[in-house]
């Protein structure tokens, strides 16, 4: 079954496109793939497939396929000559969580976003323009941001990504509470290399993905 996997892949591609647009490098959507002709920001792929029918031709001719190029193979079906598998992961899905009390808040300004990304560990990666379309949430300890996540709405589900914090379970609890408060009744999707913590919080796996890289 690829239903939720397809929803998750498209939401993730929308998030990648938002990140690239925030950095001044917009991508392009076709029926089978999202691609970017310019090299994308660190940790973000140059292409994301949107259909299990996508082929190497749907992505390699639309990106800078030189060394360092990366492709998110959303259905683990591609064969990409000259590329190596960087990692494999699993798409995840969860029915809409119920509302629970939380002290987490939404990041609403550039200064708070700077604090958030320092806690995340990648200062300078997240431009303030992201705040116009993505929902960035945070949890604090003794007044300082120590946990957070990003929620996106590139489809019928809410995408969950970049969940972090010193206590993984507490970070997921805060993320789910914010998703329920801000987007009540909407299911959640995402992906994890190791989905164990997400599974403890009501998610199920819906399919495999691979990220390829050109050495």
Give an overview of the whole structure:
The structure is a single chain. The protein is an alpha+beta fold. It folds into 2 domains: 3-91, no CATH class; 94-204, Gcn5-related N-acetyltransferase (GNAT) (Aminopeptidase), CATH 3.40.630. 26% of the residues lie in helices and 29% in strands. The chain contains 5 helices and 11 strands; from the N terminus they run H-E-E-E-H-E-E-E-H-E-E-E-H-E-H-E. An 11-stranded mixed beta sheet has the order 1-2-3-4-11-5-10-9-8-7-6, sandwiched between helices. The longest helix is centred in the N-terminal third of the chain and has 20 residues, at 3-22. The chain is globular.
Query: How many strands, what sense, and barrel or not for the largest sheet?
Result: 11 strands, mixed
Mean pLDDT across the residues is 97
The CATH topology of the largest domain is: Aminopeptidase
- The share of residues in helices is 25-40%
| CATH superfamily descriptor of the largest domain | Gcn5-related N-acetyltransferase (GNAT)
Number of domains: 2
CATH architecture label of the largest domain = 3-Layer(aba) Sandwich
Across the major sheet, the strand order is: 1-2-3-4-11-5-10-9-8-7-6
**SS element count, helices:** 5
Strand content: 25-35%
Rg estimate, integer Å: 17 Å
Q: Which structural category fits the helices and strands?
A: alpha+beta
Q: What gap, in angstroms, lies between the N and C termini?
A: 32 Å
Organism: Nonomuraea fuscirosea
Protein name: GNAT acetyltransferase-like protein
């Amino acid at each position: 079954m690829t239903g939720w996997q397809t929803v998750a892949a498209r939401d993730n591609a929308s998030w990648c496109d938002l990140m690239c647009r925030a950095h001044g490098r917009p991508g392009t959507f076709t029926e089978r793939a999202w691609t970017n002709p310019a090299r994308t920001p660190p940790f973000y792929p140059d292409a994301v497939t949107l259909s299990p029918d996508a082929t190497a031709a749907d992505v390699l001719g639309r990106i800078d396929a030189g060394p360092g190029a990366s492709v998110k193979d959303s259905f683990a079906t591609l064969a990409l000559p000259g590329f190596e598998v960087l990692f494999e992961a699993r798409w995840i899905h969860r029915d809409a969580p119920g509302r629970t009390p939380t002290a987490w808040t939404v990041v609403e300004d550039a200064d708070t976003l700077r604090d958030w990304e320092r806690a995340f560990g990648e200062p300078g990666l997240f431009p303030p323009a992201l705040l116009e379309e993505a929902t960035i949430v945070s949890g604090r300890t003794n007044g300082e941001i120590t946990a957070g996540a990003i929620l996106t709405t590139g489809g019928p589900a809410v995408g969950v990504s970049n969940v972090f914090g010193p206590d993984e379970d507490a970070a997921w609890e805060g993320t789910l509470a914010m998703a329920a408060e801000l987007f009540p009744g909407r299911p959640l999707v995402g992906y994890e290399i190791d989905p164990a913590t997400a599974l403890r919080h009501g998610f199920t796996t819906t399919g495999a993905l691979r990220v390829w890289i050109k050495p």
